[in-house]
Amino acid sequence: MSQKFQEIINSERPVLIDFFATWCQPCKVQSSVLNTVKENIGDGARIIKVDVDQYPAIAAQYGVRGVPTLAVFKNGELLWKESGVHDVNTLTELLKQYA
């Protein structure tokens, strides 16, 4: 996964990574928000989910200490990262800004 992860975040298109856990209730809320964000942003950005329990090394590498944590990458560079649940408009505007 880490090789594949590197390929994904090295994209020209912005990539929103949703670090989540299956047992996390706020993560479920964030997931439904991200579905709407994907509809809004279309092909302008990718949205990828990373289960921190399945890929703890990736989570640790990017300093993920709580879930949900969202991070935006473009050309391999971390542009933005925040923990907690975020709303549709904030995330849509954020991704448009980096697109």
UniProtKB/TrEMBL annotation:
<dbReference type="InterPro" id="IPR036249">
    <property type="entry name" value="Thioredoxin-like_sf"/>
</dbReference>
<comment type="similarity">
    <text>Belongs to the thioredoxin family.</text>
</comment>
<protein>
    <submittedName>
        <fullName>Thiol reductase thioredoxin</fullName>
    </submittedName>
</protein>
<dbReference type="InterPro" id="IPR005746">
    <property type="entry name" value="Thioredoxin"/>
</dbReference>
<dbReference type="GO" id="GO:0045454">
    <property type="term" value="P:cell redox homeostasis"/>
</dbReference>
<keyword id="KW-0676">Redox-active center</keyword>
<dbReference type="GO" id="GO:0005829">
    <property type="term" value="C:cytosol"/>
</dbReference>
<keyword id="KW-1015">Disulfide bond</keyword>
<feature type="disulfide bond" description="Redox-active">
    <location>
        <begin position="24"/>
        <end position="27"/>
    </location>
</feature>
<dbReference type="Pfam" id="PF00085">
    <property type="entry name" value="Thioredoxin"/>
</dbReference>
<feature type="active site" description="Nucleophile">
    <location>
        <position position="24"/>
    </location>
</feature>
<feature type="active site" description="Nucleophile">
    <location>
        <position position="27"/>
    </location>
</feature>
<dbReference type="InterPro" id="IPR013766">
    <property type="entry name" value="Thioredoxin_domain"/>
</dbReference>
<feature type="site" description="Contributes to redox potential value">
    <location>
        <position position="26"/>
    </location>
</feature>
<feature type="domain" description="Thioredoxin">
    <location>
        <begin position="1"/>
        <end position="99"/>
    </location>
</feature>
<keyword id="KW-0249">Electron transport</keyword>
<feature type="site" description="Deprotonates C-terminal active site Cys">
    <location>
        <position position="18"/>
    </location>
</feature>
<feature type="site" description="Contributes to redox potential value">
    <location>
        <position position="25"/>
    </location>
</feature>
<keyword id="KW-0813">Transport</keyword>
<dbReference type="GO" id="GO:0015035">
    <property type="term" value="F:protein-disulfide reductase activity"/>
</dbReference>
